[in-house]
């Protein structure tokens, strides 16, 4: 039987936090009203991309869990499923991007005056035009939401029937979805995020986003699971042992290293190439005060988690691993801010100047809180509807028996 | 008694080995070692293997390798043989990262390999554990648990009986 227990304390706290975040978010977006509709779109982009990365990350991790059916997945799978189930919501909240494309906001390729003076944007207009952008975005989220729906439905069937055949079929489907999703995420990220920059491009950007998303969502879910273990909530109090925390720590370490590897690849290739369209990304992030932010960002995003996670002792202590996982999750806010906000400077659209940017800051937090409040509400609702730890997969149970025998 | 090295139990599965090792630890045995054809998840925790010397050695040598690779490139590119490449500054540190990374791996990997041999006291031409019947199969399909004589709780008959009752396929006394 699935282990249905009273909702753990940390989930109850997050549930209480959700409406507070929503109210605070609305308030900050109203305060941000002075920066105009352009300011709203910029703010919305920041908050949306952050939570989208968590949703994508949960989705990717859910697919990995379905494929490998490993012991370390078991306490996390319900969280990954809950995070993935926000996909439809993220699709709905992507509507402002489609509107911005028609109202000539946000994207330089959507602004006729900018395009008229820019040969590169004219060349790209075959791909980047409002109609085609709308169709693609709609298709992307329809496909993602359908994949999430079908896979979670398959899990529920397995939960009821305990069918080994269905579990194997789900593994096969997850493998196909995984490969396809990586490609589709690259298209979605190129459309929705990379095209915010006027000329910059990078073919590894989709992979960077994918690994960033996986790392951050893993950080969030590991932190929640470890908090449940620390609070003594059943079944996490017995399920999460030293072997489990070591596996999670190793996974976080691997993701951190892959994150550094992908980012360094992009940096060294573009730095060596020294082409104006490519280096503009790094030039913008190494000018003035942003240079200090960049150094701080690299330290907090890579060096601190890396040095902490290579310690096997830390990975055995739930409290220390939880703090590291939380650092990884919150560093994602800085990651996305560093990534997205300078993109608004890349073209002289309305409200893209530095003053307007600074005025927009309450809005950035506003959208982060508003979307985050709804996201966490949906996340908790999904967690409440399902077992905290599913016993559904016969092969996971076999792996557990192997480990505990 | 003095010529006895320990009592070795043979198991046919990794699960049996892990179960017996856990039971032995709970029973109070401490001086024991396990031999298996592949890494068994959880066995090092059960055996309380917590030697941090090798990880520290690898970390220090990795950091030394990184510094060596970086300094070598700075010295050659900036001082020893300055050469203008693509108009970039002589001290172009991003270019030095791949080699610094490679030398980190080189130093760390060699330290891991050689350090492992050194700390294990290898090469060693004789070890009593090889007197165990069928021990050559520890590298193919059998699993062994050895409780050594120097364990405070060791008792020839009791220990052998304990291993017999905890899933051992064959229990052998192994001479030094």
Report on this model:
The complex is a heterodimer of chains A (405) and B (176). Chain A has 405 residues and is an all-alpha fold. Chain A contains 19 helices and no strands. Chain A is globular, with a radius of gyration of 21 Å. Chain B is an alpha+beta fold and 176 residues long. Chain B has 2 domains: 78 residues; 67 residues, no CATH class. Chain B contains 5 helices and 4 strands; from the N terminus they run βαβαααβαβ. Chain B has a 4-stranded antiparallel beta sheet with strand order 2-3-1-4. The mean pLDDT of chain B is 92. Chains A and B meet through helix 12 of A and helix 1 and helix 4 of B.
Question: Any descriptors?
Answer:
heterodimer; A: 405 residues; mainly alpha; globular; B: 176 residues; alpha+beta; 2 domains; four-stranded antiparallel beta sheet; 5 helices; elongated
List the helices and strands and how they pair.
The complex is a heterodimer of chains A (405) and B (176).
Chain A: H1 9-31, H2 36-68, H3 77-84, H4 87-92, H5 95-102, H6 112-116, H7 119-124, H8 130-161, H9 164-192, H10 205-230, H11 236-239, H12 242-273, H13 276-284, H14 289-309, H15 312-316, H16 318-340, H17 354-359, H18 361-385, H19 394-404
Chain B: E1 4-11, H1 14-27, E2 32-35, H2 43-46, H3 53-80, H4 93-119, E3 143-148, H5 156-164, E4 170-175
Antiparallel strand pairs in B: 1-3, 1-4, 2-3
Helix pairs in contact in B: 3-4
Q: What's the overall average pLDDT of chain A, rounded?
A: 88
Runs of chain B in which pLDDT lies below 50 for 5 or more consecutive residues are none
Distance between the termini of chain B: 10 Å
Q: Which strand-content bin applies to the residues of chain B?
A: 5-15%
User: Structural class of chain B, please?
Assistant: alpha+beta
Uncertain ranges of chain A: none
State the domain count of chain A.
Answer: 1
Supply the helix-strand structural class of chain A.
mainly alpha
N-to-C SSE series of chain B?
A: EHEHHHEHE
Mean pLDDT across every amino acid position of chain B? 92
What form of chain B results from the Cα inertia axes? Answer: elongated
Terminal CA distance of chain A:
20 Å
Instruction: Tell me the Rg of chain B in angstroms.
Output: 24 Å
Helix segment tally of chain B: 5
Query: Hey, roughly how much beta strand do the residues of chain A contain?
Result: under 5%
Number of strands of chain B: 4
Total domains of chain B: 2
Succession of helices and strands of chain A? HHHHHHHHHHHHHHHHHHH
- Biggest sheet character of chain A: none
Helix content of chain A: over 70%
